[in-house]
Design a protein that fits this description.
This protein has three helices and five strands; from the N terminus they run ααβββββα. The chain is an alpha+beta fold and about 100 residues long. The chain has a single domain, classed as HU Protein, Chain A (Irregular), CATH 4.10.520.10. The two termini are about 20 Å apart.
């Protein structure tokens, strides 16, 4: 599913114009992104929570030159599913 699919569903279920549906999806996603960039935790009840966590620095290997090289740390977004969502995933049949 991509962003336009979400806008399509919102357009049909919410009885909205295409322009308004796309605007709503963009606004929601931008709000989540801005909150994460500020270092805030974003919690969506029934789905889960997103938060920014530090990523460790370490070492990797350049296989072309056969040399060890440093890989810098950084930040990444971590998603933790909520209890309801976890339960639904457990009940889902494997494909």
């Amino acid at each position: 599913m991509i962003k336009s699919d979400i806008a399509d569903r919102l357009e049909k279920k919410g009885n909205l114009s295409r322009t308004k549906a796309v605007y709503l999806v963009d606004t929601i996603l931008d709000s989540i992104k801005e909150a994460l960039l500020r270092g805030e935790k974003v919690e969506i009840r029934g789905l889960g929570s997103f938060r920014v966590v530090p990523k460790k620095s370490g070492y990797g290997r350049d296989i072309r030159r056969n040399k060890q090289m440093a890989i810098g740390g950084g930040q990444r977004v971590k998603f933790r599913p909520g209890q309801d969502f976890k339960g639904q995933l457990k009940k889902r049949p494997d494909k």
